[in-house]
Amino acid sequence: MLQGFKWDSAKVGNWWNVLASKSKEISSAGFNIVWFPPSQDSLSDEGYLPRQLYVQNSKYGSAQQLKNAISALHSNGVYVLADVVANHRVGVKDWADFSNPDWGLDACAGDDEYNGCKGSRDSGKKYEAARDIDHSKSYVREDIKRWLLMLKEIGYDGWRYDYARGFSTSYLREYDDFSSPIFSVAEIWDDLDINNPDSHRQALCDWMDAAGKKIKVFDFTTKGLLQRAISYGEYWRLKDRNGQPSGLIGWWPGNSVTFIENHDTQERQGSGNKAWPFPYSKIAEGYAYILTHPGIPCVFWPHYFESNARAAIDAMIKIRIKNGINSRSSVSILAASDNIYAALIDGKVAVKLGSKLWDPGNGWVKKIEGQNYTIWTKK
């Protein structure tokens, strides 16, 4: 999976044309899925303050250019995910004059920051930058379903659900069941206690159980643990008490979308954003972990197209594909202590992270080596 944008991609000019122009490169690299930024009309350039859901002209380009980009990727055998922001919405001219589709003041939660809202109480976490949608209203849910059908008609294959903690899982499950995406993944970004990761990944599992087990989630547990391990040499954090990976991939790998960076965690110059960036000089080491391990790895656009790590990422993807490493591959952790992590995946691939020396022994061929990482395959 490739995240097909970064935070400021809307400022490039016509981002849909950029994606279309890169479609062959993306396919040749081995990516199966590209996640697009929100494509509806929005108050914010980035698309995360939805205004007119049925209007697909945005700062990323026109509706026709969007269709062309999706078609270009489809022609190269790549699926496309829409970034679905269903938790909140803004008015066209005022706080809550919802248009296209037209909604009344009962469509936003009664406990919203705007005291003009007349709906029921919010069914999830609040979002202060826009009006929290009241999903208990049947006409609101029907319009959201029409929106998802329209996105499928444009060509989208599946969904990335933004801010999924913002409303009840039952509604999101209803939307997912109705729209039948080939792939859907939710953003469940809870606070992580680095010293108690089990509670964090348990919360992710509980959410997926409530969502019917079909919707996948981003593995923020692995992101946090891997980032800490690589930053401070604390590689023991990557092994749990049962000898398995300590992120969500240790419990539910088939539903875990692993990543080391996204548009929210990246550092944004002058934005005041509370970033959570992966150490830039160590991104190749980060990908050496997620591209060899189970889960569904998601590569960040700037890491692939704008960094010197591209050649390493290409090599790692080829190793993954050639050796059949998949979301449910087995992991045998052979070392996990200060400055060293080593594991065998499916008995076919060996990986070492950290500054200490280690090798898997006879019968293995070194395929790629970089700063604090090495990957081998069986002879």
Structure, explained:
Helix content is 28%, strand content 17%. It has 379 residues and is an alpha/beta fold. The chain has a single domain, classed as Glycosidases (TIM Barrel). It has a nine-stranded parallel sheet with strand order 10-9-8-7-6-3-2-1-11.
List the helices and strands and how they pair.
Layout: E1 2-3, H1 15-21, H2 23-29, E2 33-35, H3 63-75, E3 79-84, E4 88-89, E5 131-132, H4 138-154, E6 158-161, H5 169-179, E7 184-186, H6 197-210, E8 216-218, H7 220-232, E9 256-258, H8 283-290, E10 296-297, E11 299-300, H9 301-305, H10 310-322, E12 331-337, E13 340-345, E14 349-353, E15 364-370, E16 373-378
Parallel strand pairs: 1-2, 1-11, 2-3, 3-6, 6-7, 7-8, 8-9, 9-10
Antiparallel strand pairs: 4-5, 12-13, 13-14, 14-16, 15-16
Helix pairs in contact: 1-3, 4-5
What's the short story on this structure?
With 379 residues, the chain is of the alpha/beta class. It contains ten helices and 16 strands.
- What is the string of helix and strand elements? EHHEHEEEHEHEHEHEHEEHHEEEEE
Average pLDDT, rounded to a whole number, is 97
Looking at the structure, the CATH topology is TIM Barrel
Cross-sheet strand order for the largest sheet: 10-9-8-7-6-3-2-1-11
Largest sheet: 9 strands, parallel
- The share of residues in helices is 25-40%
CATH class: Alpha Beta
Distance between the termini: 28 Å
**Cα-based radius of gyration, to the nearest Å:** 21 Å
